[in-house]
Amino acid sequence: MADLRFSFAETFLCSAFAACFAEFCTIPLDTAKVRLQLQKKAVGDEVNFPKYSGLLGTLATIAREERLSALWKGIVAGLHRQCIYGGLRIGLYEPVKTLLVGADYVGDIPLYQKIIAALLTGAIAITVANPTDLVKVRLQAERKLPAGIARRYYGTLDAYRTIVREEGLAALWTGLGPNIARNAIVNAAELASYDQVKQTILKIPGFSDNILTHLLAGLGAGFFAVCIGSPIDVVKSRMMGDTAYKNTLDCFSRTLKNEGFLAFYKGFVPNFSRLASWNVVMFLTLEQAKKAFRGEIYYD
Fold it and tell me: Which residues are in coiled coils (predicted)?
């Protein structure tokens, strides 16, 4: 398979751009996913009809009650996150893969080596980017408030300042445990599966390294990512959006006890819709950005 050789800086720039573009296009689906994940089941005698129901219903409810722009809540923090996290996790993937197998390795890299590389880069990247993820979730979780009640945050920078002032600097890394687990696993599912699916497709007669191949590989990456990462994603969103939980285990056990196992797949449809579309947009953009960046110069 032809190989585009890029430096870390070149890959970082292309990856950050592609990730930010995908984030802007798909953040309404992510906002719907977060609202569904934070919605709790009624306990005991409490009668509480769910405010949000389904992907389209949640999108419509948010747009109707809070205006269409509310679907892009947290977009600035989301772009901060993708610029750092997206650039690092993808930019480091190839160097880490090469480090694992050796610079002189010839042939297709084994799938398990791709998974290990993606796990490592996902963990490293989100450790750096966790504050941006926290602020993004907090802003997405905010609903429209009645008149006279002050908002908790007045924008992205105010959210950073308020969290540090009221909860301490370390609070910016709230939920780091499940976030590392979630992003390392999802990154492995996305990058390793995209890498593997693309490699497999290119061996099929009639297929080439074109937009159709990138589209199919991106859909595969999104599907594997949401199936594997959804439970951890729910725990992460709840810990970041609600300070009532003591730690990861407490959040997991209380959710399981009060709402059952299926609660960990709350927002599955919007999560899949978001991750599938995000991966398709991101990988298509990344592949085209790389070609544009280097003038489609291939080295055999």
Answer: none
